[in-house]
Amino acid sequence: MGTSTGLDGPAYADLTARARIRDAAVQHFAEHGYARATIRDIARTAGVSPGLVRHHFGSKEALRAACDQYVTDALRGFNDKALADSQRGNLSLAAAARQELRPYQRYVARALVDGSTSVASLFDEMVTMTEAWLARDDRSRAEPPLADRRTRAALITAMAAGIPLLHQHVSRAMGVNMFDTEGDRRVAIAMLDIYSRNLMSADLAASASAGFDRPRDETPSGGDTAVGHHTAGAKP
Q1: What percent of the chain is predicted at pLDDT more than 90?
Q2: pLDDT: which is higher, 122 or 54
């Protein structure tokens, strides 16, 4: 994965016109949404004419599809590298390269909200990437998972995508813009802490799972439920 998403400096200037248009579109779609982003504004940011945008991509919808695919490929490349590094027992290089993903965070969140013909494929690919991590972890688990891998991967992906989607609230709660360097670092460290600690023991999780499997009209052992006990003692 390259460094082509920075829209200033020599690296960006060296890109082809098509790549500059794509990167400018990623920025505009992320910041303004698909409906408000215009071919004219994208062309201005890329330093080309609106006609050249249409020459390379044909339409605004085709441009968005190209951006979806580009972001998907970038995320897949980072995920593959991080997974390989984890198997070697060292994620320091992947963590250092995380900044390359920052331009895509808001794009993914906005794309999931705006919708597109290819956004479902983008989300599904992210779920598949997460499945690879779960497969790695499942092999070393002492107890079998409570839920199937695809469902777990879908929920983890949705929760991760929700962080940039709620960036205004997350940033306010943290007291720093989560898209700035310091904010991104704090989010990454916090997520590492969350993922590396169990929120509950395996036994406690198993007991909760058993509760979901119990028929709804079945009274738990130990007498009346709290609600039933309260109702029985209540005055009419």
Answers
A1: 31
A2: 54
| Listed residue (10, 7, 34, 31) closest to 21, CA to CA | 7
For 142-168, b/e burial (b = at least 16 CB within 10 A) is eeeeeeebeebbbebbeeebebbbebe
- Helices 181-195, 167-174: axis angle to 10 degrees equals 90
- Judge whether 86 and 135 are in contact, CB under 8 Å: no
Cβ of 36: how many Cβ atoms within 10 Å? Answer: 11
- The yes-or-no verdict on residue 88 having pLDDT over 70 is yes
67 in Cβ contact with 50 (< 8 Å): no
Q: State the first-to-last Cα distance of the chain, in angstroms, to the nearest integer.
A: 69
Its pTM stands at 0.67
Measuring CA to CA, which residue among 158, 90, 89, 92 is closest to residue 127?
158
52-56, 121-125, 191-195, 210-214 — most confident range = 52-56
DSSP code of residue 43: H
Give the pLDDT score at 197.
79
Q: Are 108 and 71 in contact (CB under 8 A)?
A: yes
Question: Which H or E element spans position 64?
Answer: helix 60-87
| CA gap 44, 38 in Å, rounded | 10
